[in-house]
C-alpha cells in the first residue's frame, strides 16, 4: 500500500516528461500550419491553422525535396555503415588486443575529442581541395568514416561485455583475430552498434556546415541545404521553413523508432544472458 503514492508520483512525472518531449514537435506542426503574420501573435495560438497543406505543397514546389532526401539517405547510410565497421574494429582492438603503444594511441584518440570541430574545417577543406574531392560525396563520407567517440564507445562496451576467456577459447580452436572479431565479438556488440548507428545516422542527416562548404552543385544538395532555398533574399517565411524542417524530421523519427526497438531488444537479450 505504501508504494502506491510513489508509483502515482512516478507516473505523473513520466507523463509530464512525455508531454514536454512531444510539445516541440506539436509546436512545429502548429507553426507550419500558419501564415507568416500569424506566428507573431501574442499570446500565441496553440491550435492548428489552415495553411499546413498549402505550405507542404510550397515546400515541394520550391525545393528538390525528394531528390535531396535520396542524396541525404545515401550519404547517411554509407557513412553509418563505414563508421560501424571501422569503429567496431578499432574499439574491439583497443579493448581486447595487446599491442605496443596501445595506451598512448588511445590517450591520443581521446585527446582529439577535445578539439572543437570548427578548428578542423579549414585544414579539412584544404585537404579535400588537394585531393580534388570538393563538390563530391567522398568529402562528406570518407573523412568521417571513423571517429573518436565511436571507438571509445565500442571499446568501453567490449571491455565488460566480452570475456577474455571466450576470446582465448576461440583462439585455441584456431580462430584468427579477425574471425574472433567477426564471429564472436560483433554479435555481442549489437546493442552498442545499434546506438552508434542511430547516433551516426542522426549526425550525418542533420549535418549542415560541412555539406554547405563542400557541395557546389544543387543536384547533390543534402536535405538541410535544400531547405535553405526556402529563405527569401530580404524576408523569411518562417512557417514555410518550419514546415520543411518538420518534413525533414519525419524520416529521422522513423529511423529512430526502428533502431530504438533494436537497441532495447539487444539490451534485454544481453541482460537475460547475464
From TrEMBL:
<keyword id="KW-1133">Transmembrane helix</keyword>
<keyword id="KW-0813">Transport</keyword>
<keyword id="KW-1003">Cell membrane</keyword>
<feature type="transmembrane region" description="Helical">
    <location>
        <begin position="134"/>
        <end position="154"/>
    </location>
</feature>
<keyword id="KW-0812">Transmembrane</keyword>
<feature type="transmembrane region" description="Helical">
    <location>
        <begin position="238"/>
        <end position="259"/>
    </location>
</feature>
<feature type="transmembrane region" description="Helical">
    <location>
        <begin position="104"/>
        <end position="128"/>
    </location>
</feature>
<keyword id="KW-0472">Membrane</keyword>
<dbReference type="GO" id="GO:0005886">
    <property type="term" value="C:plasma membrane"/>
</dbReference>
<dbReference type="Pfam" id="PF00528">
    <property type="entry name" value="BPD_transp_1"/>
</dbReference>
<dbReference type="GO" id="GO:0055085">
    <property type="term" value="P:transmembrane transport"/>
</dbReference>
<feature type="transmembrane region" description="Helical">
    <location>
        <begin position="69"/>
        <end position="92"/>
    </location>
</feature>
<feature type="transmembrane region" description="Helical">
    <location>
        <begin position="12"/>
        <end position="30"/>
    </location>
</feature>
<comment type="similarity">
    <text>Belongs to the binding-protein-dependent transport system permease family.</text>
</comment>
<protein>
    <submittedName>
        <fullName>Sugar ABC transporter permease</fullName>
    </submittedName>
</protein>
<dbReference type="InterPro" id="IPR035906">
    <property type="entry name" value="MetI-like_sf"/>
</dbReference>
<feature type="transmembrane region" description="Helical">
    <location>
        <begin position="180"/>
        <end position="202"/>
    </location>
</feature>
<feature type="domain" description="ABC transmembrane type-1">
    <location>
        <begin position="69"/>
        <end position="259"/>
    </location>
</feature>
<dbReference type="InterPro" id="IPR000515">
    <property type="entry name" value="MetI-like"/>
</dbReference>
Amino acid at each position: 500500500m505504501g508504494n502506491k503514492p510513489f508509483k502515482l508520483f512516478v507516473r505523473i512525472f513520466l507523463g509530464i516528461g512525455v508531454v514536454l518531449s512531444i510539445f516541440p514537435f506539436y509546436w512545429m506542426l502548429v507553426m507550419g500550419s500558419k501564415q507568416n503574420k500569424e506566428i507573431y501573435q501574442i499570446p500565441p495560438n496553440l491550435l492548428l491553422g489552415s495553411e499546413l497543406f498549402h505550405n507542404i505543397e510550397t515546400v515541394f514546389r520550391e525545393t528538390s525535396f525528394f531528390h535531396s532526401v535520396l542524396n541525404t539517405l545515401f550519404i547517411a547510410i554509407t557513412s553509418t555503415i563505414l563508421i560501424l565497421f571501422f569503429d567496431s574494429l578499432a574499439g574491439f582492438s583497443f579493448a581486447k588486443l595487446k599491442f605496443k603503444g596501445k595506451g598512448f594511441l588511445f590517450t591520443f584518440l581521446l585527446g582529439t575529442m577535445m578539439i572543437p570541430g570548427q578548428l578542423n574545417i579549414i585544414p579539412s577543406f584544404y585537404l579535400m581541395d588537394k585531393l580534388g574531392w570538393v563538390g563530391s560525396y567522398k568529402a562528406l563520407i570518407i573523412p568521417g568514416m571513423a571517429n573518436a567517440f565511436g571507438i571509445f564507445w565500442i571499446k568501453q562496451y567490449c571491455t565488460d561485455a566480452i570475456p577474455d576467456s571466450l576470446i582465448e577459447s576461440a583462439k585455441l580452436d584456431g580462430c584468427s583475430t579477425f574471425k574472433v572479431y567477426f564471429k564472436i565479438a560483433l554479435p555481442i556488440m549489437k546493442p552498442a552498434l545499434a546506438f552508434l548507428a542511430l547516433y551516426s545516422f542522426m549526425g550525418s542527416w542533420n549535418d549542415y556546415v560541412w555539406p554547405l562548404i563542400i557541395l557546389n552543385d544543387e543536384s547533390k544538395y543534402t536535405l538541410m541545404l535544400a531547405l535553405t532555398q526556402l529563405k527569401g533574399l530580404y524576408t523569411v517565411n518562417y512557417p514555410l521553413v518550419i514546415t520543411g524542417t518538420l518534413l525533414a524530421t519525419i524520416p529521422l523519427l522513423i529511423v529512430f523508432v526502428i533502431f530504438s526497438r533494436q537497441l532495447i531488444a539487444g539490451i534485454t537479450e544481453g541482460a537475460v544472458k547475464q
